[in-house]
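pasting for ref
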Amino acid sequence: MPALWPFRNLGLKVLALALAIVMWLIVAGEDTVERGLRVPLQFEQFPAGLELLGEPPTLVDVRVRGAASIVSRMSPGEVVAVLDLRTSTPGRRLFQLTPEQVRTPFGVQVVQVAPATVAMSFERSATAVVPIVPVVDGTPAPGYVVGTVTSDPQKVEVIGPESVVRRATEALTETIAVDGARANVAESVTIGFLSPALRLRTPQRANVSVEILPGPRERTVRDRPVQLRNLHQLLTAQAIPSMVDILLRGRESVDRLSPDRVVAFADLTGLGVGEYSLTVQVTAPADAGVVGVTPQIVQVTIAAVRD
């Protein structure tokens, strides 16, 4: 083993010592100040098999003391309060939070921590398998209804505090919108729970399919008069035929629908004197889909009003 020589690089050692002394003198000569900071509370050594109930504090207030040049430039991210949970057991527990549990830059002293005591409740972890219930919103196009809603997977495993898991009956999905749909709707959606204490044991998504079907009821509303809309005031018009039959489809409410709520019309906007073949248009309640009109075309004769 080579002999240690205490005077090797003596010049560098002396210089380093001198710089350290100078820096100490500079800091020691500064004013000492105090400052309040709101800093993050960090949990360490969380025991396996335990769950935290409720929302623990995420920030605490600390007062620090040190040289003005250090404290004034210090950001809250440089100071962290640390709580060691390794001894935690099920039930309500109180933890002391002392200045010694706050990490700070060199030369900064923690004077006070608030709150000085943190209360938290723990329960044993539990798991359960619950069905996925897709959330469907909206109304399909008139004349169509929502059929079978399926999810792949159909069930998921949930984990969380024992008491909360016992009350869990289902997992929900993001909303699948079916407004105006005339065909099946399929989406890959996020799975979640109403309780923030619950989570999926294995993060995953659900492939949800919503069946959109023609309404189970059909009804023909006969002999509805064809209205002639947007005719210029100096003109007169006549439609042949003047009445049509309208086939509706929808839910059971279609059977109870008043014929007066089903209106057939031809739009004469911008038309002058002459003969026209026009498509019959229909307005009906939102839950009644118009399947067909017989006849679809009417012959409209427009003439000038006689003096």
